Amino acid sequence: MARKAQKQGTGTNNFLVGLVSRAFGRLGRAGGLVFLVAGLALSGWGAYEGAYAAGWAGTHGTLTVKECEVSYPNNASRSNRKNRRPVRCDGTFVSDNGKSEDAGAAVQVRHRYEPGTELSVQQTDPPTTDATADGDYIQAGADRAWRFLGAFFGGWVLTGLGVFCLVTGYAPFGQSRISYNAAWEASGRGVTRPAVIGMIGVGLVGAGVSFLVSYFF
Q1: Which of 25, 93, 142, 216 has the smallest number of CB atoms closer than 10 Å to its CB?
Q2: pTM recorded for the entire structure
Q3: What are residue 98's phi and psi, to 5 degrees?
Q4: What is the CA radius of gyration of the chain?
Q5: In terms of DSSP H, where are the helices of the chain?
Q6: Do strands 87-95 and 137-139 pair parallel, antiparallel, or not at all (unpaired)?
Q7: CB 209 within 8 A of CB 156
């Protein structure tokens, strides 16, 4: 009877261990999917905003400021309101080619500007039907373009981590079913390891260089 009870206990323990192991394996792949989606979203956002900030997309022109005001999200906490203060500047936009003029233009910036200040902006193509809607205009400038480029490369780092976790099942947080050494060894059997090293390496170097260059403008 004692041996039978011992076998039953061992079987139960093995079942629980297997169940937990499978759960952590799914957790690792779920975490990898989150990293992957976040990385692609960050790279896409950086590329979109950077293209306009650099003048590669949209219509370039000048926005003459009428007034600037600080706006806070309604659901923001007091600390977030203190540290993050989006500034909206309203004014008149005139394109460089003179074909577009918008007296109700608005752009979101990081600092307040005095009335009459001329801001270099890009009008998104095509503009929305509401000319005063945020997002119709993006402040242009080499420093901003380089920062957005840094965000684009930063997304590569998250994407590389996502691919590694998604393929191997390694969970970088909490207890992982698969150890890092085992996951690293498994990734070397195909193209996963070179792809991950390439994405993370290019992402780190690209983001570092981009943010460093942005401070010279």
Answers
A1: 216
A2: 0.67
A3: 75, 5
A4: 25
A5: 2-53, 78-83, 142-168, 180-187, 192-214
A6: unpaired
A7: no
For residue range 188-216, list pLDDT tens digits in order. 888 889 999 999 999 999 999 999 998 88
Phi, psi of 24, rounded to the nearest 5 degrees: -70, -30
Give the per-residue pLDDT at 174. Answer: 59
Pairing label, strands 118-123, 101-109 = unpaired
| Residue showing tokens 């099942």 | 169
Q: Are 123 and 93 in contact (CB under 8 A)?
A: yes
Q: What does the alpha-carbon distance between residue 158 and residue 42 come to, in Å, rounded to a whole number? A: 9
The position carrying tokens 């997309």 is 57
The whole-angstrom separation of Cα 213 and Cα 217 is 7
Distance separating alpha carbons of residues 92 and 66, to the nearest angstrom: 8
